[in-house]
Amino acid sequence: MEPVLSIQNITKNYGPIQALKNVSFDVPAGSVFGILGPNGSGKTTMLGIILDILIADAGTYSWFGGMQKDAARKQIGSLLETPNFYHYMPAIDNLEITASIRQAGLDDRNRVLQLIGLAERKDSKFQTFSLGMKQRLAIGAALLGRPKVLVLDEPTNGLDPAGIAEIRSLIKTLNKEGITIVIASHLLDEIEKVCTHVAILKKGTLLLDGPVNDVLRCVDQIEVRAADLLQLQNILQKMNGINKIQLADNSLLLTCAPGVIPEQVNSFCSNRGLVLSHLVLKKKSLETKFMELTS
Predict the structure, then answer these.
(1) What's this model's pTM, rounded to 2 decimal places?
(2) Are 261 and 293 in contact (CB under 8 A)?
(3) Are strands 5-14 and 149-153 parallel, antiparallel or unpaired?
(4) Of 63, 146, 184, 275, which is most buried by a Cβ count within 10 Å?
(5) CA proximity to 269, closest of 227, 216, 213
């Protein structure tokens, strides 16, 4: 299937600072695609470029297989900044103003309010909404006109746990409606829980991209120790299924192929006359994996 968005060798500089360095990736149709990285990694710059707010110094991008930019932009809803709504006006009237400014979606307000779960509060003033409700209304404004793609920059930033849960649930609902969603975030937990695909940026450089389960897959490790570490290392180098051996704190840290368990390592060493003094399965967290990639 042709990607919704194809990015090829995008580079962007701010004077001596290189915000993006030859970045390329594709966003599959129907995906929830996360652009993940620490603050300052180039995420917001990338969103600005693909939304025609910023101009890249080099490289190209295309929406919907090469659709003209003006036509493509009508198929894209976006939320890049804190929403500007009139606090004293109800939700339905705030959406009317947004629709009028965009010249699209004036008759779409009730559908959008239903979709974002605010239909029963359509006549409530914006100032009475919780933070999560305010953010849902902002996403609703981006949905006016039935866009095929929704682009969100840090959609849960500043929200409390309840608000974060609201936005995560809404993103999943919108994706089930067939909307492709592109999210920029520095929060690993957010990307892991809502995204199907991810691109990881560090200081403007693309480190990895692909399905979340592949890119963020964690490999468990086995920590072993014996009286003679050199002998232990020589023995383990002959064992099938051990992909990497690292020395760490007077122990050996083994990165193994799927299916290799500590009991097999113990048996392999014992059969060769070496008794292990330490054998522990170490679970690697997603946070550890992310920090290894970006630090």
Answers:
(1) 0.79
(2) no
(3) unpaired
(4) 184
(5) 227
**Amino acid letter, residue 203:** K
Query: For every one of its 295 residues, what pLDDT tens digit does the chain have, with 9 covering 90 and above?
Result: 789 999 999 999 999 999 999 999 999 999 999 999 988 899 999 999 999 999 999 999 999 999 998 899 989 999 987 778 999 999 999 999 998 888 777 788 999 999 999 999 999 999 999 989 999 999 999 999 999 999 999 998 888 888 899 999 999 999 999 999 999 998 888 888 899 999 999 999 999 899 988 887 766 789 999 999 999 999 999 999 998 898 888 899 898 887 889 999 999 999 999 999 999 987 666 666 677 666 6
What phi and psi, each to the nearest 5 degrees, are found at residue 31? -90, 165
C-alpha 134, offset from chain centre: 22
**Cα–Cα dist 5/171, whole Å:** 19
84 class by beta-carbon count within 10 Å (0-12 exposed, 13-18 middle, 19+ buried): exposed
| Nearest CA-CA partner of 42 in 200, 212, 215, 208 | 200
CB-side neighbour CA atoms (13 Å) of 86: 11
CA distances from 151 to 97, 125, 139, 260 (A): 21, 26, 10, 41
Residue 186 is encoded by which pair of tokens?
């520095």
- What is the three-class DSSP state of 147? coil
Q: Which two tokens stand for residue 205?
A: 């450089």
Q: For residue 117, is it left (φ>0), alpha (ψ between -120 and 50) or beta?
A: left
Residue 119: exposure state from Cβ atoms within 10 A (0-12, 13-18, ≥19): middle
Phi, psi angle pair for 101, to nearest 5°: -65, -40
